[in-house]
Write a structure and sequence with these properties.
Elements: E1 6-8, E2 14-16, H1 25-28, H2 33-42, E3 69-71, E4 77-81, H3 86-98, E5 111-113, E6 117-119, H4 144-160, H5 178-183, E7 189-194, H6 200-212, E8 217-222, E9 228-236, E10 242-245, E11 254-256, H7 272-277, E12 281-289, E13 307-314, E14 324-332, E15 338-339, E16 342-347, E17 349-350, E18 356-357, E19 360-365, E20 368-369, E21 374-381, E22 387-394, E23 399-408, E24 416-425, E25 430-438, E26 448-455, E27 465-470, E28 478-485, E29 493-499, E30 504-511, E31 521-523, E32 540-546, E33 551-557
Parallel strand pairs: 1-23, 2-13, 30-32
Antiparallel strand pairs: 3-4, 5-6, 7-12, 8-9, 8-12, 9-10, 10-11, 13-14, 14-21, 15-20, 16-19, 16-22, 17-18, 22-23, 24-25, 24-31, 25-28, 26-27, 26-29, 29-30, 32-33
Helix pairs in contact: 2-6, 3-4
């Protein structure tokens, strides 16, 4: 994030709160279908807008055939090629849609990096083989020429954005594509925008105009912990949700609320924690077309010192256990609605240039703030540096240093126990109520619990539906939690998995009844069956329908 000014704020206001849950209503308003539909009506755009892109893309084989091998810090070279990277993948989808250009108009400068070695310059006149680039790459159904064609273009775009290639994930900034797209690829219309430079209404209007004109958009968003992803948006449904091509081999492609953008949760079943873990924050867009497109540059952007920070709250004393909730109470002192991305960090001192040194990034609080309205923004934050630290706040156009002093304590991750207290299974849904206890007498539990639902048996492969829960439990504390999954298939086997922090701590296997069978049945677990990931990993509960009694019963298996 570019910093335009540095402000020193003395005597900030940091509080501790006892709240274990937060109302996220203000954050969700931005991406709601109602607002999108309202903006569409004002722009004279009729919804739905059908998806534009026909291709399906991933980052592995065959798309990464031209990517470099990864060089580890000890000099060893990976045995497999690096992944393409989401920025290059999304750009390749859009360029392959336009089938332009046939050759590079200018060279793409190479570069060097410790983990990728020397990346050679891609020369002017290099051909792009669109004739061999397919929309769908089904294993065993494409030729080497077809594989190499899409791999080469993906690689050229990776060089263009100076991709940091790696085997596990490859990363780059979307904005780095602007100059090479204009110069080397010859695109007449290239426009890079950031959501927080505009009002929410104006931002949605810009997106809707592009899609209504038949121009797919390269889009990016970030979670509250700073992880980001680039993808393609290319349509809007009648509800006001945007069609997303995620670049994960077709997995999760579909319609999503722009304020949430969580691939794991069903867009029909958002949760508060899932929203802050989604990519609905600090969003970016790249508009492009081979031909020039006339547009008017906004004379007023939503920047400037229009957001006043009243206080920052943590829901427990800061420690190194992942998963504190931070609340930032802000006031929009302007006359327009606006986005307010606020990054929290700690540091120990200023360097010789007056910049923070020894910085520890905590997380991002972001959302829409209405004109002249007090709003609470929420972040899921974590601390890694211990001791007395200065709290800093980074906004879109300013940085507040020495906002206050906090003390971060070293803590060990406590053990959690899970008890299945109740379950309700119908032909189309499953609901599980858990009793959860922090077994540590000393430390808070802040790590996220992930609830996963697999069709069939549990596997380590992705493809499950998920819900998330930040469990801020005090030492020895207990809480109840209910998680529900809807839109299931009748007469189908599923496995419900509780992960903490990631390894399965508990499994519940069940079959949904036929639509004509019993529609709802409660299954109650015995209170003495506890599941602790540190002691007895991967215990499983099977829920079976007993025809002799007409009821479900629970079976424990190892």
């Amino acid at each position: 994030m570019k910093i335009f000014a540095v402000l020193i704020a003395a005597g900030g206001n940091v509080h501790l709160s006892n709240a274990d849950s937060v109302d996220f209503g203000s954050e969700l308003a931005y991406g709601s279908g109602e607002l999108v539909r309202s903006v569409a009506r004002a722009e004279g755009i009729t919804l739905p807008l059908a998806p534009i892109i026909k291709s399906v893309r991933g980052q592995g084989e065959p798309f990464n055939r031209a990517c470099p091998y990864y060089i580890y810090d000890d000099g060893m070279v990976s045995g497999e090629r690096s992944l393409v990277g989401c920025v290059a993948t999304s750009a390749e989808q859009v360029l392959s849609h336009y089938r332009y250009p046939e050759v590079l108009m200018d060279s793409i400068a190479g570069f060097s990096s410790a983990n990728n070695g020397d990346i050679a310059t891609v020369p002017k006149g290099t051909p792009i083989d669109f004739d061999n680039i397919l929309d769908i790459y089904t294993p065993g159904e494409y030729s080497d020429d077809e594989a190499q064609a899409v791999a080469n273009l993906s690689y050229y775009l990776g060089v263009a954005c100076r991709m940091n290639w790696a085997v596990g994930s490859s990363g780059a900034q979307v904005g780095r594509l602007v100059e090479p797209l204009r110069r080397a690829f010859g695109y007449g219309y290239v426009r890079y925008l950031r959501s927080y430079d505009y009002t929410p209404q104006r931002w949605l209007a810009l997106l809707l105009r592009e899609l209504a004109a038949g121009r797919p958009v390269i889009y990016a968003g970030y979670s509250t912990q700073g992880s980001g992803h680039a993808f393609v948006i290319d349509g809007v449904d009648r509800m006001g949700r945007f069609h997303v091509s995620w670049g994960f081999g077709g997995n999760w492609d579909g319609y999503f609320d722009l304020a949430i953008l969580n691939t794991w949760e069903s867009p029909l079943e958002p949760t508060a924690t899932g929203c802050i873990e989604g990519l609905g924050h600090m969003q970016e867009a790249l508009f492009l077309h081979p031909d020039s497109v006339a547009y008017v540059i906004d004379d007023t952007l939503s920047t400037g010192h229009r957001v006043a920070i009243d206080n920052v709250s943590f829901n427990r004393n800061p420690d190194t256990n992942i998963g504190m909730l931070a609340e930032v109470k802000v006031r929009n002192v302007s006359d327009v609605d606006m986005f307010a991305p606020i990054e929290l960090f700690t540091y120990t001192r200023l360097d010789s240039l007056g910049n923070p040194a020894d910085v520890d990034y905590l997380g991002l609080a972001d959302g829409i703030v209405r004109a002249h309205v007090d709003t609470t923004l929420v972040a899921f934050v974590s601390c890694s540096a211990v001791g007395e630290r200065l709290l800093g706040i980074n906004m879109t156009d300013s940085m507040y240093l020495a906002y206050d002093t906090i003390t971060v304590q070293k803590a060990s991750q406590p053990k959690l126990s899970f008890v299945l207290a109740d379950s309700v299974i119908t032909a189309r849904s499953a609901s599980f109520t858990l009793s959860i206890t922090n077994q540590s007498p000393t430390y808070w539990s802040g790590r996220m619990v992930t609830y996963s639902l697999f069709e069939g048996e549990y596997t380590e492969a992705e493809g499950d539906l998920r819900h998330y829960k930040v469990l801020n439990l005090q030492p020895g504390g207990s809480t109840g939690d209910t998680v529900s999954f809807r839109n299931l298939e009748p007469n189908t086997d599923y496995t419900f998995v509780v992960r903490n922090p990631w390894q399965p701590a508990m499994q519940v296997m069940f079959r949904t009844p036929l639509a004509t069978d019993v529609q709802s049945e409660k299954i109650r677990g015995s209170s003495d069956k506890r599941y602790n990931p540190s002691y007895r990993l991967n215990h499983r509960i099977t829920i079976e329908y007993d025809e002799s009694t007409g009821r479900y019963r629970q079976v424990l298996s190892r």
